[in-house]
Design brief:
homodimer; alpha+beta; PSTPO5379-like; PSTPO5379-like fold; 6 helices; 11 strands; 21% helix; Putative_hydro-lyase (chains A, B); lyase (chains A, B); UPF0317 (chains A, B)
């Protein structure tokens, strides 16, 4: 399935699954939609926290169509699932946001770690959430962010169990992709970054960790959702964790 | 101090310390000296286990002078401390091996992780054993080697405590130096590789590990000494752990 075909299925509401493992080779992106009044602060917040919030493209106000990641794709119905936030609460999850769209909205597309998973798999590193068709495990941490205006809080991370003999290789491989979170922010010892129970992720699905595996943690584009809880904006929209925008850009375009 | 000056001090027996932190920027090497009868097996053993035993140069039989790592340097008195092995026992440590030298000896110079420490320090990664002028901590593990002839056993690793926020960077940086052990073989959780007490290294000095640090393990050129215990050869010579041969080759010559 090409990204164009996947986005068409999504727009017809025929695809409602996490996008990890689909359209291998193409960059996937997190979405944050804010009214124009908060856009400048949020852009500065992303620039100040590039590891969890690598800004790939800004769209609008006045349009919901990307020009860089997938020219012409409409961001109001080409992600499988959205979250609508009011006053810091995730009020509902919806399949398209056309009913909520207003022309003052600005769309932020942020890099996603699914983009480097292809490179890990190519190097022989198995990914359990992909093998088991689950959503990746994501956790709130105590890693502080650089706050800007109403946007304050701590980093969210994704976790992948990696065989102990492949941990260093996973760091090296993902380090080649700085625009999609790059190398891990933490390796092993979840309690050191404020995670108390790996079996209970804050977002996504739990996965088993085998005796010869080490939990490895990457900065995650769900971080803004953690921050939105604190910001309590009257209105915001994001993707649902794991249900990403799949672009037309090849992952290798972001490799260094 | 240049490598030439350091080797001259050593030859005059005016320097008897671990060489970590000296002649920054220059490749340091492990030494194994064997009679010619065992040289072919040991060379194959090194080729089969390139991570702990990266073969940089072979010297002899018939000469003890290097031609590649430090042209003209005499390997019988330019390392600060040697170990003389008989029947698998480390019989004595000596400052030069001229009394033991016979023309049938072959000298193997193997890459050493001290060579990438300069790059770690340049990236802002502190190394406690260097700061405290100690020998690096080294441990026997349960990581199996590929055996060749009498050379059989498990890998020895060096350990450096790294701040949790710099672990991935340490993997990336040292991964650029595959000829001097490259990226770590293990990160965190010492018990997973058979190390029961980090405070009691099998070679070198113990160093403290702070609450925000993770023990990171690299393959170590002391591995052959572990293997010599099993091989029980009538006669062998090695460097003493941490007391390396300092070459005239710049570390960057081995960076990829």
């Amino acid at each position: 399935m090409t990204p164009t075909e996947l986005r068409a299925q999504i727009a017809r509401q025929m695809f409602d699954k996490p996008t990890a493992g689909y359209c291998n080779g193409y960059v996937q992106a997190n979405l944050v939609v804010l009214p124009k009044t908060h856009a400048a602060d949020f852009e500065r917040f992303c620039r100040a926290n590039p590891k969890p919030c690598p800004l790939l493209e800004m769209v609008g106000p006045g349009t919901a169509k990307t020009s860089k990641l997938a020219p012409g794709a409409d961001l109001t119905d080409t992600l499988p699932r959205y979250r609508v936030w009011r006053d810091g609460h995730n009020e509902q999850e919806v399949a398209d946001i056309k009913p909520f769209y207003t022309p003052d909205m600005v769309f932020f597309l942020l890099g996603c770690s699914f983009s480097f998973e292809e490179a890990l798999v190519k190097a022989g590193i198995r990914l359990r959430h992909v093998d088991q068709a689950k959503n990746v495990s994501m956790y709130r941490t105590n890693l502080p962010l650089v706050g800007v205006g109403p946007f304050q809080g701590e980093m969210v991370v994704s976790m992948r169990p990696i065989h102990r003999s492949q941990v260093a290789q996973a760091c090296i491989i993902t380090g080649r992709y700085p625009e999609v979170h790059g190398e891990p922010v933490h390796v092993g010892y979840p309690e050191m970054i404020g995670i108390t129970d790996l079996a209970k992720p804050d977002y996504g699905d739990p996965v088993e960790i085998m005796a010869d595996e080490i939990p490895v943690f990457w900065a995650c584009g769900v971080t803004p959702q953690n921050v939105l809880v604190n910001a309590r904006l009257p209105m915001a929209i994001t993707h649902a964790p794991g249900y990403m925008f799949v672009s037309d850009i090849k992952n290798e375009a972001y490799a260094v």
